[in-house]
């Protein structure tokens, strides 16, 4: 798992990017539109777009959302996160703190 290859995802940790991809995959596999997926999660369509996006915009994931996804799509958290590195100090778990587009003062 090479975290450096995810430079374009620098707002999110690699684990967040993986989960966001899995959220979209689960929704599509279930045959839900954006509107239906948003309704099931109790969010707006725009919020679901932000949840599923892996670019340098969008929103971070929270525990409540992960719990809803687990129940709605009948999946485990292991399936949502995928294979994880055993080194819990790995960069895979670190959310980058660098501000994008800001100029140094």
What is the gist of this entry?
This protein has 105 residues and is an all-alpha fold. The chain contains five helices and no strands.
Describe the 3D structure.
This protein has 105 residues and is an all-alpha fold. The protein is built from five helices and no strands. The radius of gyration is 15 Å and the shape is globular.
Percent strand: under 5%
Please provide the ordered H/E string of secondary-structure elements.
Answer: HHHHH
Tell me the distance between the termini: 34 Å
How would you classify the quaternary structure? Answer: single chain
Number of strands: 0
Low-confidence stretches: none
So how many helices?
5
Reported for the largest beta sheet, the result is: none
The helix-and-strand class reads: mainly alpha
The overall pLDDT average reads 85
| Coarse shape | globular
Helix content: 40-55%
Radius of gyration: 15 Å
Short key terms for the protein model shown above:
105 residues; mainly alpha; 45% helix; globular
């Amino acid at each position: 798992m090479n975290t450096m290859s995810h430079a374009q995802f620098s707002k999110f940790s690699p684990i967040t990017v993986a989960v966001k991809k899995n959220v979209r995959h689960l929704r599509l596999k279930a045959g839900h539109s954006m509107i239906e997926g948003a309704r099931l999660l109790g969010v707006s369509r725009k919020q679901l777009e932000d949840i599923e996006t892996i670019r340098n915009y969008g929103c971070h994931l929270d525990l409540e959302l992960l719990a809803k996804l687990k129940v709605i799509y009948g999946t485990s958290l292991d399936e949502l996160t995928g294979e994880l590195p055993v080194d819990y100090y790995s960069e895979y778990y670190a959310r980058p703190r660098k501000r994008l587009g800001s100029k140094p003062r």
